[in-house]
Fold this protein.
Amino acid sequence: MSIAVGLVGAGVMGSEHARILREDTPGAKLAGVCDADPQKADAAACGSLTYSDPLEMIRSNNIDAVLIASPDSTHAELVMACLEVGKPVLCEKPLAMTAQQALAIVELEMSKSRRLVQVGYMRRFDPAYQMLKHSFDSGEIGQPLIVHNIHRNPVAPEWMTGSMSISNAFVHEIDITRWLLNTELSTIRITTTRKGDPLVIEACTNGGVIITTEVNMNCQYGYHVHAEIVGEQGVVSLSSMPSKVIHKAGQRALSYPSYWVSRFLEAYKEQTKAWIKTIQTGKPNAGANAWDGYITTAVAEQIIADNNVSPLIHLSLPTCPSFYS
Ligand code: ISE
């Protein structure tokens, strides 16, 4: 059965998701696109139906499942609308702007007794991150001591304002660390550099593993994400990214992607394939569920709320309900 997907949002990420659904996702068809800008909706739809009202599309009988790629502040309400009508939804991160909104999603999903929400923490589907996890899980480097993360964007997009370097960017490291180490964070300390960007974030897990992250929204040279796990018996690092090597003027240079879609294209494709397969088979995949979405947002919210007030933030996080384990 081909799954008819309705896409909300036809901006940078949405148009990429539209292309992936049209060209790279067996078992799915792009059945509708909704965007406030009709030209963007038309361009992404490539002949499928377009909508200006997301709720009309979500409720339409032509749509089996929904992919949300609209601005962050719209996510929670749209996910709730999908849950109300019992439709599977893949929502770009973050799941919600506040922990309260995210918890309402978790509660509504649990009341439906069926897991319908996946959150687009796509790094979990990146081949290089999967190799890192595989190596760590196999015990190759022994017990973990430190995880080092680098998260650099060349230039902050114009919509990146206020605390979004945490709520929109650092949330990736919150999710990937929990996923890699299979544990929760317990404390976080943020140091802001002279210009307010980059941030240096030092966290500690429940098991005492130290996590360091540089979140840099304006590194100027390219999009660069890196991670390594330091273990008791060795270190495992992310391997090469999709890139090219330029030989010129007596130098050999490895180029960086310009933004995250080119770096994580494979991950986006695999994530969408896995989501469609889960809808077809009912078997969960490695993606982030609503609980993961809630925890990442809750951690981000506690850091943002306490930033500049407490140098060391003691996180307070609830226990995962069996519904999600
Ligand atoms: C952006 O929204 C993303 O999700 C990218 O993956 C991340 O690297 C970037 O920092 C965010 O702004």
Summary: The chain has a mean pLDDT of 95.
